[in-house]
């Protein structure tokens, strides 16, 4: 299995997972044209995609989904709640249900509902029979489902959205600070690092920090927080970028 990130942050999110002949995209928070450009950077064309899994209806996750489905016939999966929240409706190939498994050719996907200010947000654990990858962004706190499903992974992409001091001192109005920092908002650096500790991820080959806020975080702070909490090598940690995303990472 291998994975790559087309881009990550409040201006668009999309992650690509590949095993054998299966390509699965998680979210498409870019215009179709931009998504095509970013897929091409990774050597993939939309026609190769077996599915797009939509985590939730926020625009930084769904912008290109409808066109990807309509122009390229890519099957789309989302939860019932997310379907109700989509501003540009698109037919679902299947509905995602918390705790259930979806088999997409070589990849088995476990659906995990998370705590976030959307109608029925989900995140995913991928298993190709050999290795397991967790993708976990857009959550304000770790709920029992997260703690149950994200243990013992080989690779993890996890949100490190903000630094709590930067958020408190930053430019957001009070209600937005409360929303972002709340239990249905986003994980801050420390919460995220402590969650990785709690998940006992000693076997991780890759740990990727994602969905960093451009206004309320920076890569140096996030990296310092994780190396502090985990005691890991700063060079081993990777950070997904809004523009460049992250190149292919093989899970050996
Ligand atoms: Zn988001
Ligand atoms: Zn969101």
Automatic annotation (TrEMBL):
Pfam families xrefs: Lactamase_B_2
SMART domains in alphabetical order: Lactamase_B
Ranges where the Metallo-beta-lactamase domain occurs: 11-186
InterPro entries: Metallo-B-lactamas (IPR001279), RibonucZ/Hydroxyglut_hydro (IPR036866), WalJ/YycJ-like (IPR052533)
Superkingdom per UniProt: Bacteria
Protein name: MBL fold metallo-hydrolase
Organism: Pseudomonas benzopyrenica
């Amino acid at each position: 299995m291998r994975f790559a990130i087309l881009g990550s942050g409040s201006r668009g999110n999309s992650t690509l997972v590949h095993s054998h002949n299966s390509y699965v995209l998680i979210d498409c928070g870019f215009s179709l044209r931009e998504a095509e450009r970013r897929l091409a950077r990774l050597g993939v064309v939309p026609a190769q995609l077996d599915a797009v899994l939509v985590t939730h209806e926020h625009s930084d996750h769904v912008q290109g989904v409808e066109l990807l489905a309509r122009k390229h016939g890519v099957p789309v999966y989302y939860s019932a709640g997310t379907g109700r929240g989509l501003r540009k409706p698109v037919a679902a190939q299947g509905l995602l249900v918390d705790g259930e498994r979806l088999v997409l050719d070589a990849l088995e996907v476990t659906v995990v509902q998370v705590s976030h200010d959307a109608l029925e947000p989900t995140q995913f654990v991928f298993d190709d029979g050999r290795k397991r990858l967790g993708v976990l962004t857009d959550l304000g706190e770790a709920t029992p489902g997260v703690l149950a499903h994200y243990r013992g992974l080989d690779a993890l992409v996890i949100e490190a959205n903000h630094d709590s001091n930067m958020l408190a001192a930053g430019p957001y109005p009070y209600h937005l600070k409360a929303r972002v920092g709340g239990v249905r908002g986003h994980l801050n650096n420390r919460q995220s690092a402590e969650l990785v500790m709690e998940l006992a991820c000693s076997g991780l080959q890759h740990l990727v920090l994602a969905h960093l806020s451009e206004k309320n975080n920076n890569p140096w702070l996030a990296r310092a927080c994780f190396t502090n909490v985990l005691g890991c090598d700063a060079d081993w940690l990777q950070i997904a970028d809004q523009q460049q995303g992250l190149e292919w990472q093989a899970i050996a």
